[in-house]
Amino acid sequence: MLLFSYLLMSGITTGALYALVALGIVIVNKATGVINFAQGEFFMFSGYVGWMLHVQYGLNYPLSFVLATLIGFVLGMLTDRIAFRPIAKNDIVSLVLATVGIGFILKGLARVIWGGRSDYLSFPPITSPDPIMVGPLMVVPQQLAVIAGTAVIMLVFAAFFRLTRAGKMMQATADNARAALLVGIRTDQIYTLAFGTGAAIASAAAILTAPVTLIYPDIGFAFFLKGFAAAVLGGLSSLPGAVLGGLIVGIAESLAGGYIHSSVMELSPFLVIMVVLVVRPTGLLASRRARTV
Amino acid sequence: MPFGRRNVFLALLAFGAIVPAFANGYQLFVCNLVAIYIILAIGLNLLVGYAGQLAFANAAMFGIGAYVIGLLQVHLGWPFWAAFPIGSLVAAAVGTLLALPALRMSGLYLALSTLAFAQATQWVFLHWETVTFGAGGFKTPQLSFAPLPIGKPAGLYYLSLILVVLLYLFARRLVRSRIGRAFVAVRDSEVAAESLGIDLLRYKALAFGLSGFYAGIAGGLYSALLNFVAPEGYDLFQMIIQKSTIVVGGMGSIAGSVVGASLIILILELLREVKGFQEIAFGALLVGFVLFMRGGLIVVVRRYLSGWEEPLRLTPKAEAPGLPRPDPQPSVAEK
């Protein structure tokens, strides 16, 4: 029972992070119809930026969090202006390769700028590292911080989509880009906003998780694949679906890692993606519209 | 007097044939690497440039070829000459199996599921330690060309060169045949291709299998060249190198694969010191070519070398929307 509760908690924690990465993927995909392959690299790069601000320059944690998220937002917007807007009408092969290229540039930059110190950097924990007992459950306070942070970020985004003008314009564009253009929404600006928002979410996830995991230049791709698995599981166009998918992937991975073998964890995104795409391509919570896979 | 593609390639081949006479060990190694990447690029171009299947599993096929060929020698004591064809065929078979998900997916989804497949292959290389020796990799036996009076570096180089010529000619014949036209039809519109009686499963499986076969052959040569096989040689970065070769050379051009592979390997070797610079360079190349030079370098070659006509090349869509593609004309040089 102790093992189970520990695995469950760590599954929910990593699942919450996958959910954030998946949210970023879904937001970009909903607005533009493409997948931003650099999503994982935003996560990695902002993690390093946060580390630099917090550990090297000694800024406090909340301030580094906000700054790194902002830088992630700008990176996302730049990606749109460089690698999406000029070629938005081209074939899908070009679009994919362009964002893959952006991802590799970011990865190379991180390796050149920060890679020399040591390959694995760690954040100092922001809470005490000792586990506490909540009833029968064993809980690490940092995990609670990650889960709470994730919940706050999700609420902020839900509010952004429901309550703000920009959020409503994004929803309209996602629903029907041509109609949105006809009523005067500048859809290309919405695309830029979507790329920026997606990157900002990934950045926020990176700073949240940095105290529990280590940062290294290749971390982005692993998170991207898992985030994508979560997004696919949720149907790729549904925000609640992405959250649910993230939690399922995280918990399943953690339980498989604990009860079968730790190496199985790395295999989970492949299994999820293959099974979902082949068996049920619309995902768990997709809109009823038929979707071409 | 027109240059003609054939004359250019014959000159290149003649140059390639005399390289071992004057090159030092490192130069010969790089030339051999270029030959291997030409094979990889041609195979990948058949799949991505001609058949239009955006798959990211080529590095995995390359790895499967290298591992099967290496492990057959290490575990079962097979000679290289027996393991080499078997390994290439195994890679081709795995490639063909990948066509099954490709039947249900296209575009982004195919890209991501093949990426996930590539990750799973890495996982097997890393964790099936009793067979694959895990992350540390393993050494393959030294290749010997006895009874031929030729050393291993030069022998392997000539073997690679011969295979490049054969596979190049085969690919050229293939893309001009019924099969090549079917690939292009599948790329341009699956629905239209099916309505013309093109069996999607058959041609997709063929394209995946062929690219797996090319990658398997390249994997065998690569493992023999390095005498060493380890998982990190076949990771995502490897995939980006291979993708860059066809983007830089020109998608949908066999000749472009040759140009792209040569250039990419030179850049890779120049930046060998720092992996970060390699990643930045290849990322920038991908973005730059996609943005500013979609046809790849082969477009420049085509424009400035007279007599350079390629059948069934990738025509930019803006050229003739909705119009039937003009029949490929045999080039002056080939008459």
How is this fold's topology laid out?
The complex is a heterodimer of chains A (293) and B (335).
Chain A: H1 2-32, H2 39-56, H3 61-84, H4 92-114, E1 132-134, E2 137-139, H5 141-163, H6 165-175, H7 177-182, H8 187-209, H9 219-234, H10 239-259, H11 268-279
Antiparallel strand pairs in A: 1-2
Chain B: H1 5-22, H2 25-50, H3 58-76, H4 80-104, H5 107-127, H6 129-132, E1 138-139, H7 152-176, H8 178-188, H9 190-195, H10 200-226, E2 228-229, H11 236-249, H12 254-270, H13 275-292, H14 297-304
Antiparallel strand pairs in B: 1-2
How would you describe what is shown here?
The complex is a heterodimer of chains A (293) and B (335). Chain A has 293 residues and is an all-alpha fold. Helix content of chain A is 71%, strand content 2%. Chain A has one domain (2-218). A two-stranded antiparallel sheet of chain A has the order 1-2. In chain A, helix 2 crosses helix 8 (187-209), helix 2 crosses helix 9 (219-234) and helix 5 (141-163) runs antiparallel to helix 8 (187-209). Chain A is globular, with a radius of gyration of 19 Å. Helix content of chain B is 71%, strand content 1%. A two-stranded antiparallel ribbon of chain B has the order 1-2. At the A-B interface, helix 4, helix 9 and helix 11 of A face helix 5, helix 11 and helix 13 of B.
Give a brief rundown of this model.
The complex is a heterodimer of chains A (293) and B (335). Chain A has 293 residues and is an all-alpha fold.
